[in-house]
Design goal:
By secondary structure, the protein is α/β, with parallel strands linked by helices. The chain has two domains: 64-272 and 484-498, Aldehyde Dehydrogenase, Chain A, domain 1 (3-Layer(aba) Sandwich); 276-461, Aldehyde Dehydrogenase, Chain A, domain 2 (3-Layer(aba) Sandwich), CATH 3.40.309. It is 37% helix and 22% strand. It has helices at residues 3-10, 64-83, 86-102, 104-115, 119-137, 178-189, 203-216, 230-238, 251-263, 286-298, 315-330, 350-365, 421-429, 444-453, 492-495; strands spanning 26-27, 29-31, 34-36, 43-48, 51-60, 146-149, 155-163, 166-170, 193-197, 223-225, 244-248, 267-271, 276-280, 308-314, 370-373, 377-378, 388-389, 392-395, 412-418, 433-434, 436-440, 458-461, 477-478, 496-504. A seven-stranded mixed β-sheet has the order 15-18-19-14-13-21-22, sandwiched between helices. Strands 10-9-8-11-12 form a five-stranded parallel β-sheet, with helices on both faces. Helix 14 (444-453) links the parallel strand 21 (436-440) and strand 22. It binds adenosine-5'-diphosphate. Residues 170-172, 197, 199-200, 229-230, 233-234, 237, 249-250, 253, 256-257 line the site of adenosine-5'-diphosphate. Adenosine-5'-diphosphate (ADP) binds next to helix 8 and helix 9.
Length: 519
């Protein structure tokens, strides 16, 4: 159970919190153009993971009633928004981008307070939302369909995109503004209305994105947000009027979401776990590969779905790489993400600490692996009130070990020796996930062979496993997803359905597949 879920259980109705510290800001749901309390009056607290004594804000603990109201508002707004020309919808979205740009620094600071990652990374998170907004708003003047020859004379054939209707969006805490933007902005440009349920650990950044939509003038009912725990998300996923559910989060929850959607025949797009790999060949620029691995493994304290949790290194350079990498990992400074001196911020909550430390214990018990650095929670001095874990490296890990197979989602990575490119690719592909992979090599033949053989949604050459750009499709194979891709123009295939249109101007009945002898 996450920290916020615990708070939901503990929190009292809002009417009775009059004696709470006055400086804690309160935030409400946004439904049908108004900021409103949860119908039951309940709230939950959003805590700073670097110092849990700091309450970032108090948020509405939404009930099924609140979800129903939000979906109803989105249903009511659906037709008007669908009929608003896409270039006009785009103008409003460009304004959203401008508002985010203007407030980027403040938004990044608020995000670091609620999520923990260092300021340059939260700045990047906001920037990704800006990039997504500008890029996707441009689709307002494209949203291309296609024309194609018809099989009969005097007949015209074309394909156009149509919105799907009301979208339910459920998002995680690790990219609290970027991921909501990847879903909200494409949904809107395509002419859908939406209800978003952000993660209970980081609702503020999503509310900030919704505020930008409000300030930009997006009409009432088009964008709605309900905050709360998993049950609020479940109510949204199960609501019969949400035609599409777009979910990013854990594989376990994603599977539940998929089965609910299957049951009621809703469109479902899932973005889930990863066990991403960086391969380092014997001809690689080792210093560059180390820089890449440090950023990939310990950026966002390893809490990215594309984090580098396995590093497969050619045995000819393995010892050299391992020694330098461990030295550099040991030198990383763990602390409050608001401080300039911090390299690695806290993990999100106590639940995450338990899970990560649990995996470290598993790694220590696994036969061959060696704990080469880190391995501990930091609990004293500046770390005593937060959720801090040392950057942790296991060496001599075998590909079948649990720490090399399961997603840990923390600052822990496993070094695995290999003896050839084929061996490296086999190890890389030998997990249930397929999100991101990278290879460091100067040999163009090896680079192209790897590019071809790595069965993942994203491949990097001479760059770490993280760093996706918004105009390329994002997503993964196998247990990472269910075949959809966010970002790029590919995201339009999630948020629209194709309509094939046949125009017969022959003035007679022409039967496809049958009246072929007249041709
Ligand atoms: P994590 O383990 O990263 O917190 P989760 O998959 O539990 O990932 O959460 C991702 C999002 O899904 C959050 O917004 C969470 O509240 C929501 N969620 C959790 N359980 C459910 C559920 N059963 N149905 C719908 N949404 C859920």
């Amino acid at each position: 159970m996450s920290q916020a879920q615990k708070s939901i259980k503990k929190s009292k109705p809002q009417t009775t919190v009059a004696n709470a510290k006055p400086r804690v800001a309160s935030y409400q749901n946004y439904i049908n153009g108004e900021w409103v309390k949860a119908s039951g009056g309940e709230t939950f607290e959003n805590l700073n993971p670097a110092d849990t004594r700091e309450v970032v804000g108090r948020f509405a603990a939404s009930t099924e009633d609140d979800v129903n109201r939000a979906v109803e508002a989105a249903v009511d707004a659906r037709d008007k928004w669908r009929k608003t020309p896409a270039p006009r919808r785009a103008e409003l979205l460009f304004k959203v981008g401008e508002i985010l740009m203007r407030n980027k620094d403040a938004l990044a600071r608020e995000m670091t307070r609620e999520m923990g990652k260092v300021l340059k990374e939260t700045g990047g998170d906001v920037q990704e939302a800006i990039d997504c907004t500008y890029y996707t708003a441009g689709e307002g003047r494209r949203l291309h369909g296609f024309t194609t020859p018809a099989e009969m004379p005097n007949k015209f054939a074309m394909c156009v995109r149509q919105p799907v209707g009301v979208c339910g969006l459920v998002t995680p805490w690790n990219f609290p503004m970027a991921i909501p933007s990847w879903k909200m902005i494409p949904a809107l440009i395509c002419g859908n209305t939406l209800v978003i349920k952000p993660a209970e650990d980081t609702p503020l950044s999503t509310i900030n994105l919704v505020k930008a939509c409000v300030e930009a003038g997006i009409p009432k009912g088009v964008v709605n947000v309900v905050t709360g725990a998993g049950a609020t998300g479940a109510a949204l996923v199960g609501h019969r009027d949400t035609r599409l559910i777009s979910f990013t989060g854990s594989t376990e929850t994603g599977r539940k979401v998929a089965s609910v959607c299957a049951d009621r025949n809703a469109i479902c797009s899932l973005e889930m776990g990863g066990k991403n790999v960086q391969i380092v060949m014997d001809d690689a620029n080792i210093d560059l590969a180390i820089e890449g691995a440090l950023w990939g493994a310990f950026g966002t304290a390893g809490q990215r779905c594309t984090a580098t949790s396995r590093i497969v290194v050619h045995k000819k350079i393995y010892k050299q790489f391992a020694a330098k990498f461990v030295e550099r990992a040991n030198a990383l400074r763990v602390g409050d993400g608001l401080k300039d001196s911090t390299d690695v911020g806290p993990v999100i909550n106590q639940n995450a600490v338990n899970k990560i430390i649990g995996y470290i214990e598993i790694g220590k018990r696994e036969d061959k692996a060696k704990l080469a650095c880190g391995g501990e929670q930091l609990t004293t001095g500046e770390h005593q009130h937060g959720f801090f874990i040392q950057p942790t490296v296991f060496t001599d890990v075998a590909p079948s070990m649990r720490i090399a197979q399961e997603e840990i989602f923390g600052p822990v990575t496993a070094l695995i020796p290999c003896d050839s490119l084929d061996n490296a690719v086999e190890i890389a592909n030998g997990v249930r996930y397929g999100l991101s992979a990278s290879i460091f090599t100067k040999d163009v033949n090896q680079a192209f062979a790897a590019m071809n053989e790595l069965y993942t949604g994203i491949v990097y050459i001479n760059a770490p496993t993280i760093g996706a750009e918004v105009h390329l499709p994002f997503g993964g194979t196998k247990a990472t997803g269910n075949g959809h891709r966010e970002a790029g123009t590919q995201v339009l295939d999630i948020f629209t359905e194709w309509k094939s249109v046949y125009v017969d101007y022959s003035n007679k009945l022409q039967r496809a597949q049958i009246d072929t002898e007249n041709l």
